[in-house]
Every structure is written in structure tokens, then in C-alpha cells.
Amino acid sequence: MSDAHLPPLYARWMDAHLGGRIPEETRATCSNCAMAPPAGEPMGPGQFDPNTKCCTYVPRLPNFLVGAVLADEDPEAAAGRATVEARMLAGVGVTPLGLARPPAWDLVYRHGVVRSDAAFGRVRSLRCPHFLVDGRCGIWKHREGVCTTWFCRHDRGAVGFAFWEALGGFLSMLERALSYDAVLAYGLDGAALRRLVDGPLPPDGPALDGHQAPEIRRRNWGVWYERERELYVATAGRVERMRWDEVRRVAGPEGEAHGQVVLAAWEALVWATTPERLRLARLGTVEIGRETAAIVTHRTYDPIEVPSRLLPHLARFDGRPTELVREELARLGTPVDAGLVQRLVDWEVLVAV
Ligand code: SF4
Ligand code: SF4
């Protein structure tokens, strides 16, 4: 497997789709979280709580990933499996399509609270139910598209960000299409199918309290009522057995469009090219230190650090040939090597003319 940092199923799909490997994001050091303060130090502004990391999020798990977790007999996976079983037992948002977010959490999420700087990565009550006490993800091997593609930092700045955003969109789209394909294949009956298409009912009291009324559960599951686990495991087997061309057939034209966008973003990620003429972009926040300056561009978590002495000279990139500007900077005693120019391009400090 070339993309061992992806869940095995998604790595197999991307091997077939891209025909090459996806570079790892080495700056997102999840087992020793890059956004958390050093051990024993308090959490500062812009840092994440090590007890949540970036997992102030509740993933929607498509049926085939729920099934993959349930069928995973690795003793190492037992704790994570228990977190999925707990969501199933509560029953809220548990449908043949998979596990939706609990409505109370979803309301907070939709109001943008979760994504605010004050809450994201910092508020323990918003933590994912699959986050284990030792700080690991309990369902890492079978995590969904958003969790697979979210990184706080990217080795190639905005270029990496764009690639993973595109891949996240593709995987989420595939998850939706394949979970519908599976419920159709396993003969969900008309009324229950109608419930899925109509979308969730407005949350009632029990659902807001974190448990589902039995009559709603019966309606949601139709012929599969009280055989939820069986359906999930069956869908996992079905999707696992599909070849990539079969997955793409299920995804249809929308999948084709996503696939092309991902391929283009991947090519940009693996083949770095420096434009022949560059100009300075409009910059966001710049924090200037004695030796280095941090420039925020596409993402606050991931500023680019440059030598402070370079800042007054960046405007020399004014559309003239890049090599000419580099020679000029070298004459002024501020040489900029090709690697730094590429990073300035990757972080969108310099943009092609
Ligand atoms: S991606 Fe999340 S867990 Fe990984 S280093 Fe970044 S904030 Fe920490
Ligand atoms: S599923 Fe795993 S990676 Fe995703 S939010 Fe939960 S703990 Fe984090």
C-alpha cells in the first residue's frame, strides 16, 4: 500500500485513481499534536487543548464505515468499536445510511460555534465521541473523509490545503453515493427509504436528550429493524469488494467531476513549479520578530516563516522575471534561494503574473 497514512479502503481507491502516492503531511504531528502546548504548559491563544486536539467534531459515518468498525476484530480496535456501538445504542441519527450527528451537537455546529477560534480544538464538551482517553482516534483505520483529509498544517502550504480540501469533498461525495447504493442493494423497504430521502425529522425531546424513541427507530429501519448491525456489516463487505471502476460507476458524473478536480490538485502537489514571473500578493497578518517574521495567508494555523530582513524586499517581486529579482536580492545582500521562492509561492505570498 503506497498511501499508508490514509485509511486502507481510501488508500486503495486513491492508488487506483491517481496512479501515484500522496505525500504525507509531516508537519501535522498528530501523535504529538503540533497545535498543543508543550507538556505541562498552559494552552495559549491559537493553541489546541491536548485533550481535544482538532477533534472538536462529530463525524457522520456512512454505513459501510460503521460496518467496517464493527467487523474489525483486531483487539487494538476494541475501544474504538465500543464508541461506535455506544452511538448505535443511543440510536440518535442512526439510520441505514449510517450515523448522523446528534441534533443538539449539529445545532451548535451549524451556528459556526464549533469552527470559531474560541471553540475549535479547545472546548472539551464538543469533543468527538471516538476520541480515546489516551488521545488516539478510536476509529482511525476507518475514519471518514473529513477526518482523513483535515490537517492543521501542510508541507506545501496552500497547495496542500487545496489538495486535501478537494479530496475531502470527493470522499464525502463517494460516502453519500455508496451508502445509498448499499441500502438499495439490500432491499430497504419503501417507507424506510422515503424516510431517508426526506431527511431527518425535527429533533424531538428524547433525541435532544441523546436517545431515540423506539417507534422512530422502527420507521427508520423498515425490514432491517433490530438487524442494524447486520446491515452495516453487509454494506462494509459490499463496498470492500468493489473495484475502483465500480465505485466510480456508482458515483456517476458528480464523482467524475470531483475525480478530475482531485487529480489536478494532486498534480500540483507532487510537481512543484515556480512561475517565471511573480508579484507580491495582498498579505494578511504579519508578526515581525528579530530574526523571522510569520505571515498568515490561507490559514491562521499555518503561517509561513520568512527571514525578517526579507520583508522590505518582497515588493521587488513586481512581475519581472523571477531569476532577475533573485539576482537583485543577492546583490543587496538578501539572497533568496529557489526553495524559499517556492515556499513563498506555495503559501501564496507570491503569485504568478
Ligand atoms: S492535525 Fe490535529 S491532531 Fe494532528 S497535529 Fe494538527 S491539530 Fe494536532
Ligand atoms: S473520528 Fe477520530 S479523527 Fe475524527 S474527530 Fe473523531 S477522534 Fe478525531
Topology:
Blueprint: H1 8-18, E1 61-62, H2 63-71, H3 78-90, E2 94-95, E3 98-99, H4 103-110, H5 145-149, H6 157-185, H7 190-198, H8 205-208, H9 214-221, H10 228-241, H11 244-270, E4 277-280, E5 286-288, E6 292-295, E7 304-307, E8 318-321, H12 322-331, H13 338-346, E9 350-352
Antiparallel strand pairs: 1-3, 2-3, 4-8, 4-9, 5-6, 6-7
Helix pairs in contact: 1-11, 2-10, 6-10, 6-11
The structure holds iron/sulfur cluster (2 copies).
Describe the structure.
By secondary structure, this protein is mainly alpha-helical. It folds into two domains: 8-270, no CATH class; 277-352. It is built from 13 helices and nine strands. The strands form three sheets. Strands 1-3-2 form a three-stranded antiparallel beta sheet. A three-stranded antiparallel beta sheet has the order 8-4-9. Strands 5-6-7 form a three-stranded antiparallel beta sheet. A hairpin with a 2-residue loop joins strand 2 and strand 3 (98-99). One iron/sulfur cluster binds next to loops. The site of one iron/sulfur cluster has 10 residues, from loops.
| Overall helicity | 40-55%
- What string, H for helix and E for strand, traces the elements in order? HEHHEEHHHHHHHHEEEEEHHE
How many strands appear in the DSSP assignment? 9
Assembly context of the chains: single chain
Could you tell me which ligands this complex binds, including any ions or cofactors?
Answer: iron/sulfur cluster
Q: What is the end-to-end distance?
A: 39 Å
Question: Number of folding domains?
Answer: 2
From the alpha carbons, calculate the radius of gyration and give it in angstroms. Answer: 23 Å
Strand content: 5-15%
